[in-house]
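Researcher: Please translate sequence to structure tokens.
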Amino acid sequence: MKTRKLGKTGPVISEIGLGCMSLPDDAGKAERIVQAALDAGINYFDTADLYGRGRNEELLGKAFGNRRQDIILATKVGNSWTDGKEGWEWDPSPGHIRKSVHNSLKRLGTDYIDVYQLHGGTAEDDLDAIISVFDDLKREGLIRHYGISSIRPNVFLPFLKNSSAVSNMMQYSLLDRRPEEWFADISDAGASVVARGPLAKGLLTSEAEKRVEAADGYLSYSSGELRKLIAGFGRLTGALHSAALAFVLENGAVASAITGASSEEQLHETLNAYDSMPDSETVRTYAALTAEDRYEKHRE
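Model: Translation complete:
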């Protein structure tokens, strides 16, 4: 497993990270997946306090056991919920962030978080106050680095440019190339892209033909366009799963491709695909079939 530096000042992380939202709600099964990922060289693990209303953090904390020193642990903050009430509310206030970090630390069973991320954001948020509390938590040693998870340019650009953030987590894949327009700006701000959804809900794996039949299109692709595209991928050299990972990692602005795994089998499928990634020329043949879409909203 190769590694890349997260931003200019962040930690060195594995090119494939484990998105923990997909972990089964079974401590034993979750532990086996996490330990298998660690054994394969994955060191970046991403969760959020929102996933399972904290349950996912608890599962991950138990799963890494005594191997905390081998993990770059990332979680997210900004959503609040009330027990017994459905849904959640957006709350990026400094008070909520400070309360939440202590709750996450307790659930994760650790005394520091490697990368603490704002879980979204709006143009109406007081970004200066949010950045200030993140800087305070960093000085206090509760977090080592921080970032944001956002697809809104009018949120992530000012956040990155006015802070010491090392990352922006955003959806990026062969089927979603909207972030590319902003890669240079993100890099210039001293941050890296952490790519979520690199396999586009399984549409870019060996299950593509099955998944595409059940999919009602994908982003700007209609159902018919998506079927035609997947068929076109099938006529190219190499495995789609491998090409999808290679495409995401082809750009130096990306530090890691975050893939989920609900079983050890899924994890090993991704690891095998990573080990078989094609060369740049092959990746370009895949990319040539796809749309270079742009974000239409949240630009100003």
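Researcher: Any highlights?
Model: The mean pLDDT is 96.
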